[in-house]
């Protein structure tokens, strides 16, 4: 299965995006995996990725589209989130420590805990791409 959607950079579209992703995957996987557990994990990853694009990459530019692509091969999930922002230089990222009492900066850590593989590519044909991959365990 392969599908994609394009939505504005507006958090009001988050529910639409969540429903699109989870409903698409449920059609293919519901009987094969522990869907309740996996849908919560995938929802959190999607919310983290999309909200970062809206709040940081496309800040105050709701007209810029966010494109999300999903590909499912058996139980292997490949998810791409494309944005048109300035991008983020991962070489400057310092993971927060609990003593810092920081409010932000945890997204990269969260995504890497939720997914098997996380990759961020800057400036691919004028856009940035966050790739999330995981193999969903059998029920």
Describe the structure.
The protein is α+β, with helices and mostly antiparallel strands and 139 residues long. The protein starts with a strand and ends with a strand. It has one domain (2-135): Histidine kinase-like ATPase, C-terminal domain (Heat Shock Protein 90). The longest helix has 23 residues, at 35-57. A five-stranded antiparallel sheet has the order 1-2-3-5-4, with helices on one face. 34% of the residues lie in helices and 29% in strands. The mean pLDDT is 93. The protein has three helices and five strands, in the order βααββαββ. It has helices at residues 14-29, 35-57, 107-114, and strands spanning 2-8, 65-73, 76-83, 117-124, 127-135.
In the CATH scheme, the class would be Alpha Beta
Rg from alpha-carbon coordinates: 15 Å
C-alpha geometry: globular
Could you give the order of the helices and strands? Answer: EHHEEHEE
Which topology does CATH recognise? Answer: Heat Shock Protein 90
């Amino acid at each position: 299965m392969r599908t994609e959607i394009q939505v504005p950079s507006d958090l009001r579209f988050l529910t639409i995006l969540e429903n699109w992703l989870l409903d698409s995957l449920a059609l293919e996987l519901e009987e094969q995996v522990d869907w309740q557990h996996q849908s919560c994990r995938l929802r959190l990853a999607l919310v983290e990725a999309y909200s970062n694009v809206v709040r940081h990459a496309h800040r105050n530019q709701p007209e810029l589209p966010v494109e999300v692509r999903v590909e499912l091969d058996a139980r292997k999930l490949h998810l791409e989130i494309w944005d048109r922002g300035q991008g983020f230089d991962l070489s400057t990222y310092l993971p927060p420590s609990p003593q810092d009492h920081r409010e932000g900066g945890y997204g990269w850590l969260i995504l890497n805990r939720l997914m098997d593989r996380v990759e961020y590519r800057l400036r691919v044909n004028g856009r940035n791409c966050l790739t999330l991959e995981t193999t969903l365990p059998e029920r």
